[in-house]
Amino acid sequence: MPDGFPENSVGLVAPQLFRFEGPLELSCGRTLPSYELVVETYGELNAEKSNAVLICHALSGHHHAAGFHSAQDKKPGWWDDYIGPGKPIDTRRFFVVALNNLGGCHGSTGPVSINPETGKPWGKHFPPLRNRDWVHSQARLADALGIEQWAAVVGGSLGGMTAMRWAVELPHRVRHCVVIASALKLTAQNIAFNEIARRAIRSDPDFCDGDFIEQGKSPRNGLALARMIGHITYLSDEVMGARFGRELSSGTFMRGLDAPMEFQVESYLRYQGDQFADKFDANTYLLMTKILDYFDLARDYNNDPIAAFSKAQSKFLVVSFSSDWRFAPARSREIVDALIAANRDVVYAEIESTMGHDSFLLPNPRYAAAFGAYMRRIADTIEPRGGDDATG
Amino acid sequence: MLRVDLDILQQWIAPNSRVLDLGCGDGSLLQSLRDNRNVEGYGLEIDAQQITTCIERGVNVIEADINRGLGNFADKSFDSVLMTYSLQVLRRPDRAIDEMLRVGKECIVTFPNFANIRPRIYLMFRGRMPVTKQLSYQWYDTPNIHFCTIRDFENLCRDKNIAILNRKVVTKCRPDRYLRGLWPNMFGETAIYHLSK
Question: Average pLDDT for consecutive 10-residue bins of chain B (197 residues)?
């Protein structure tokens, strides 16, 4: 392990680019002649290739799930609390594969990539995708890595939907499916929030009807606003109260002083929005939120989730968080009820947390214990071993 | 829960059947049923620590509050619904039994018999709520809010037209064991009922 990184970190990591030649037929009827996926892997693939875990990212996620890109990196990958040596997804025992989804803007083929037919960025002309397309694009990644069956496909939020889609779309390739803070489909309220975010982006004059790259512009305000709205819905009233309350970051309520006043929550949200606008592509945001909205696990199974899950061969872990109102525990219970009715093996934990939807990314002892216990059992069936102190 | 209760109860569950265990604790019953009788099952549990233990055992544990009912389960979707030593902690044990018989073709319930001679003597001579090895809480911190006796339970079954397929009464204390057959409501410590409707 290079100096300076925590002992339970995967340490220095580097992304790899995988190129897939040969057409990928998409749900919309169109075809991508070829595509690229940017991928990070942690841990070692065993000789039987039976210890691979696929990480499916959420709306704004990417391939950098754990570790650091350089010694100067201040922040590790987005799920570093749960991926690493001795962590719930233990890289001493699992070979972990994290990627940027097709249609993403972090290095995989997406709206910011060049369309080989036109020589210009795809932009708004990138084909609309469905979760199913991600599954099939990722199956070719599994093929390239020599992985016939994932020990587990794991995802939170939108990633949980991808994990479920994997389990019913390619049942023989998934041994365990871990669905965290997710849903069988979005509620009307949830779609409504996404539509507000999309409208914020589209109404930015610099969006240029989706052609902003060609016109050398960026709808930063629209993107920032979309992120600010999203961010509020990922937190809870309680955690915002605890973190910011009504504290001011500048100015004062004192009489006679008319310096501009700003609440801490305002500057925090503005910072989050601006940060996001710097690194995220507006067309990708539109694409990803549409994938979220259109997802309905049971649509092709006569709207019956039991029929959908009857196709699955994997075992399931489902986790929700008490304060998550964007993907509420009730949505996870619908998943669990359908799994039980379909006679699938399932474990369900409803974790007490004040952190809202973001809970699935944040440290939480009980979440780590339950998730870790489940993953340990998977690892034990691959390769039985003794105590935690054994080294990999 | 006594070892002997588990042994009796397991014999009432058909091999290869599908069970739901309400308040499954650390999952040992479900694990044993799976390993010994090839029984597929799910356990409902509310305690975080117990849930993690179930996961470690590879038991299908679902975090749920039984007090909210079993509305998410279809009628007769399980061969047996079990509840060991949890009846007395529920807000409405009567409704729980209704739900168990709706969801399961049969159900098995075990509970501590409050009319056992030991709590009777305790209450009679000390004039205080019984604190025994089996029921080791004080009145103010006990999760056991609805104690009943064997006679109470059978009255409830009669009122609800519930058929008692089997009944066993077990006792740990040696002298009582010889007497429980004669006078179960006085000498039985734990009652095990096999019910259907």
Answer: 75 95 95 93 96 97 94 94 93 95 96 90 91 84 92 96 94 73 84 95
Separation CA A186–CA B38 (nearest Å): 38
pLDDT tens, residue by residue, A35-66:
999 999 999 999 999 999 999 999 999 999 99
State ipTM.
0.92
Helices A264-279 and A220-234: angle between axes, nearest 10 degrees: 120
A14 is written with which tokens?
């580097």
Active-site pick, A324, A353, A358, A359:
A324
Are residues A346 and B42, on separate chains, in Cβ contact within 8 Å? Answer: yes
β-pair partners for B19? B41, B80
For residue A157, indicate whether it is catalytic: yes
Nearest CA in chain A to B57: A377
Q: How far apart are CA B45 and CA B22, in angstroms?
A: 7
The β-bridge relationship of strands A248-250 and A262-263 is antiparallel
pLDDT tens sequence across B147-189: 999 999 999 999 999 999 999 998 877 666 677 777 888 888 8
Per-residue pLDDT tens over the stretch A74-114? 899 999 999 999 999 999 999 999 999 999 999 999 999 99
Chain B nearest-CA residue for A380: B56
The reply to whether residue A337 touches residue B72, judged by beta carbons under 8 angstroms, is yes
Locus of tokens 């429980």:
B180
Give A245-278 pLDDT, tens digit per residue: 999 988 887 777 777 888 999 999 999 999 999 9
> Looking at CA atoms only, how far is residue A300 from chain B in angstroms?
23
Fill in the amino acid letter for A157: S
Q: Which of A348, A350, A377 sits opposite B56 (nearest CB)?
A: A377
- Give the residue among B181, B160, B175 at the shortest CA–CA distance from B109: B160
Residue A231 annotated to the active site: no
Tell me the shortest Cα–Cα distance from B31 to chain A, in angstroms.
13
Q: Which residue of B has its CA nearest to A373?
A: B56
Is residue A340 within 8 A of residue B103, CB to CB? The reply is: no
Q: Which of A340, A352, A370 sits opposite B55 (nearest CB)?
A: A370
Span A3-20, mean pLDDT? 93
- Do B73 and A340 count as a contact with CB atoms less than 8 A apart? yes
The terminus-to-terminus CA distance of chain B in angstroms comes to 26
Cβ proximity of A166 and A326 under 8 Å: no
Taking each helix axis as running N to C, give the angle between helix A158-169 and helix A131-145, from 0 to 180 degrees, rounded to the nearest 10. Answer: 70
Q: Which pTM does this prediction carry?
A: 0.94
Residue-level pLDDT at A387 = 47
Minimum distance, in Å, between the CA of residue A319 and any CA atom of chain B: 10
CB count within 10 Å of CB A275 equals 12
C-beta atoms of B73 and A333 within 8 A:
no
Instruction: Using CB atoms, pick whichever of B55, B60, B74 lies closest to residue A341.
Output: B74
Residue A136 annotated as catalytic: no
Indicate the helix (H) or strand (E) that contains A263: strand A262-263
Average pLDDT, chain A: 94
CA–CA distances in Å: residue A117 to residues A35, A109, A124: 13, 14, 15
